[in-house]
Write a structure and sequence with these properties.
Length: 90
């Protein structure tokens, strides 16, 4: 295999492009307040927030489902009882 195929071009050119892109991304991250000391802490916070968001959504769905069930289940039960009474009368 050729070195140009492995690197996607001239190896020296690829290394220089990667270095320049790394500097630009580093500047943006530093402007956002992310540095080497708190990078992994930020990643941990992000994963924890995503985890909490998922369970928060499940809690939200369950809360509304139970609230709706307070109305739907009694109406369904009444409809079933009335339907059964009509079936026996016929």
């Amino acid at each position: 295999m050729d070195r140009n195929t492995i690197f996607g071009g001239n190896p020296l050119g690829v290394i220089l492009r990667l270095a320049l892109i790394s500097i630009v991304v580093g500047i943006v991250m530093k402007a956002l307040g992310i540095d080497l000391r708190n990078f992994f802490q930020r990643i941990n916070e992000l994963l924890r927030n995503l985890y909490d968001l998922g369970f928060g959504a499940i809690e939200w769905v369950i809360e509304y489902m139970l609230l709706g069930a307070l109305v739907v289940i009694p109406i369904w039960l009444i409809a079933r009882v009335v339907g059964a009474a009509r079936s026996k009368a016929e």
